[in-house]
Every structure is written in C-alpha cells, then in structure tokens.
Amino acid sequence: MLKPYQIGYRMSAEWEKHSATQLHWPSNRETWPDERLEKVENVYLNIIEVLHRYEPIILLVNTEVQPSVVEDKLIARKIDQQKVHIYQVPINDVWARDCGPIFIQRIENGELQHAITDWEYNAWGEKYPPFDNDNALPEWFSKTFRIPAFKPQMVLEGGSIETNGQGLFLTTESVLLNPNRNPHLSKVEIEEKLRDYLGAEKIIWLKDGLAGDDTDGHIDDLTRFLDTRTVVTMVCENQSDINYEVLRKNHEILKNSTNQFHESLRVETLPMPETRIEGTTVDGSDFVPASYANFYIANGVVLVPVYNSRHDGKALELLKSWFPDRDVIGIDCTDLVWGQGSIHCITQQLYGIDL
Fold first, then answer.
1. Partner of 97 at 20 to 30 A CA spacing, among 22, 62, 72, 209?
2. Is 345 a catalytic residue?
3. Domain ranges (residues) in the chain
4. Confidence (pTM)
C-alpha cells in the first residue's frame, strides 16, 4: 500500500487556513486539583472569547460534564454559540495538540484534499494513565467528519514536531528518541515514518527541552517557524538559570542548520520568562515550561501566552512584526502553564471539516 507521501500528501504549516480549532474543556481533577480547575476554566474562556471571532471551535466536553454547564459559562461571556461546536466525547485531559488528529493535504485534479494521520498517544511515555480515550480521538474525528485516516503505528505527539509546510521539520532527540515512546524504532526508522506519513524531507534535531516539561522536551516550547525559512527560538540571558545551557545548545544547532535546499535558516530569539514557581506542580516539579514559543497561529490571529513577565511586551512585539496581517493577542497563561502546558499544547488546527 502506498504511503501518504508517495501520493502527494504533506503536513501543512500552521499558518495555512484552518477550518476549525480543536479544544478540550478542562475537567481532569488530577491535573487541576481544588481551585485550579476554576482558574484554568477562566483561561479557557479567555482563549475561546478571542479565538471564536476568527475561526470556529470544536470543543470536546467529557461525558462526565453536562454540556449545559459549559454553555452557560460561554453565554455569560457573550460568546457566539454558533461559532463554538460542543461535542460530548470521552476524553482524559486537555492536551489536544498531542492526542488530536494531525492533518495532511494534497492537491488532486486541482482540488485540495485532506486526510488524518492517526498516531498512537501514550501520555508522554505512560506518565498519566488512563489515556485510551484521548488516543481514540483521531479515529473519532475521522468517522464523525468522514475524513480518510492513515495509521502510522508509531507513538507521536503533535507538540513534538514543527513544520514549515514545505517538508522541513524540527523536533527533539529527548522526545522522539526516548525509549518511553518507540523503543523498537531507530532514528532512521523514525525519520522514515515522518517522511512517509507527514512529508518530512529534512528533519533538524534539537537536543533537550525545558525544565518542568513533563513531555520530555516538546519542540513547541523551544523553537517555532515564523515563515518557511525563519525560526524563533527561546534563549536564556541568565547563565545560572536551569534552562541556560539547553537553550544555548539548541540555538547553536539552529544557527548552523540549513533547509533541504541548503539555505541557512534565519534565527530570531526570545528570552525566557521566569519558570520557577512557588510550591510545586502536581508531579512535584519546581519549574513550569513557561515559554513564548507556545503561541498558536489561527486564521487572522496569533494567540500568545504571557506570564506577567517583563519580557511579555518583547514577545508580543516580535510576533507582531512577523505576522503583520494577523492580530497578535496576549493571553495570561499563568494558571494554564501550572498544568505544564500552554496555548499551543491545548489547541489543534483542523482542516477539511464542514461545520
């Protein structure tokens, strides 16, 4: 059987037009204990209030939550109900980026066609069971919206890869080569899977991720594409900071990297906000992966996580300069990142869906 790449499919860049965004309403009390749940609900409402003005939202609500409760919260914010499509589906947690469908597209007979790649999801090395409901979501999307799906039979989270939409990919060794994902696959075999199912013609491998990142180091907290040849990467000014050396090494790799056409990358940088927190997270970490790189590019808008940091303004200004045709809006994610993820982690762009 021919693989998607052999018949012209590739993964799109995030800035290509979406048909909707996938979100999961927070309900997992292990991730969001006590007052944390209400706090993160408010962050979600802030995100939805902005995002629904630019593109439709598919909001998955766990079967243990009454949709009317969520609807009442949306109505209280004067959010247009016709732009937020609620589906009650069994879900385990909020991390739509990592368990949601990863779309690919091709042009066939002059028409744009979309398909889903249905990778396996094991909650970052089986750290947070159960995860079976989240793992089933790509198949649910395929059946519900009648979109063909390919099954690569490999563990892969959406937050672990980044593409410019033209075959160039970024990832980290600390995730894709981690034995808690695909111990039976070599680096070469993993690269073949990314080529065959996502159209990865060249992969730039960074090293490690941020302290407090329980995913083992997702790329979407480190480095993102701003256009097909430009990346923005997080750097740390303080040499005594826990993230300084990791980010320095990744920055050096990027400065010495080329795309598949042997052209050097243009590399922009952003400083890290404070990542040490008072107390600890649920899994006992003193740090959270607070990063401006965890922005989300939607139709007409870029949602940027901010953290009440002195660097917030610089992050917003840089992204405004690179996305002049989109509104760039900061969302306070202090309460969201306590759960060890931010805006990009909880969103997944969807294509080819008729709502």
1. 72
2. yes
3. 4-350
4. 0.97
